[in-house]
Predict the structure.
Amino acid sequence: MTDKDYYELLEVSKDADKSSLKKAYRKMAMKYHPDKNPGDHEAEENFKMVNEAYQVLSDDEKRSIYDRHGKAGLEGHGARGGAGGFGGFDDLGSIFEEMFGGSGFGGFGGGGQRRERKTYHYNLDTGVELKIDFNEAVFGCNKEVNYTYKDACQPCKGTGAKTGKLSSCPDCAGQGQVHVKQGFMTFSQTCPRCQGSGEAVSDKCTKCSGKGYKNHKSSFKVDVPEGVNEGNRIRVSNKGNIAPDGSRGDLYLQISVKEDKHFVRHDDDIYYEVPIFFTQIALGCDIKIPGLRGELDLHVPASTKDKEQFKFSNEGVKSVQGYGKGDLIVQVKIKYPRSVNDEQKELLEKLQESFGLQSKPHEKSFEGMFKKAKKWFSN
């Protein structure tokens, strides 16, 4: 599925205060919670997205970034992860305690049952780059995705151990932490061998060579929505890596857009340069120019300046988040002849003479400067 707008997910307006956000989140979390929708995968996906939306919009800094730049601007700010992967979930935990009697969810709160220890060492969610052409990003397309996913090795149940059972990690003695001495200070850090689990492989599984998984190649078709841009992500449910118990993560398609020779995109606005001959500039002209969706009429007034811009509202890219369309901005580039023949030279000289002093603006501008320079040198 394609990521939805956070405000739409919570069914609130863009100027909603924190109290309204919290109230809306309670309502939507209750509606989509897996315990209330057993076996409903769509409800589970909506529940994840509602959590993600509240995490961002309840944080002033993340909300400001999201309002200005959308989800692409949140990369690196901890906006992703879904339930159980939040950087700051105190508020979410208290909400779950209120809604579900202190039982918590996925590790929220203090009274929930402890999760079963993870025995495999790879993430269920995975990602792949999806390269598309400029026009495919602007108008949307249907693309084939080829990728590789991990499936847990069944003989060792994803552990990588020959017997399917892990031994106490020898590096950390089963503690999951090792101590590193630097000078007179000693620091504690996650054990790199067992990644903090306290368990490690003693004899490798011969089926998977101790990796705990097998790689499989797969492909499928995906609809890329109109208006996606470089850096956007599309989440495809249940196409990620597979755990020993058969549960499966999601696949994230990282959009990469090829540049166009003429059109330049900035957010949802489109820019390009219009070459116009100097005589057209002197006289003014009306010309046909290409737009994203067909021809447009451009009126260039006489004496238009080089690099002057003209805007066509709502002729840009449709916002993937539903905010309307951007603008098309064309910039004038005045072109001059590379050379002139005798006839053209004669005509230009006559034109020059017809303007009289107006054709020599430098003479009036430099008049005072010549006098000033003579005075300097005479002293």
User: Anything to note?
Assistant: Residues 118-153+211-258 form a domain with the HSP40/DNAj peptide-binding domain fold (CATH 2.60.260.20). The two ends are 81 Å apart (CA to CA). Residues 361-378 form the longest helix (18 residues).
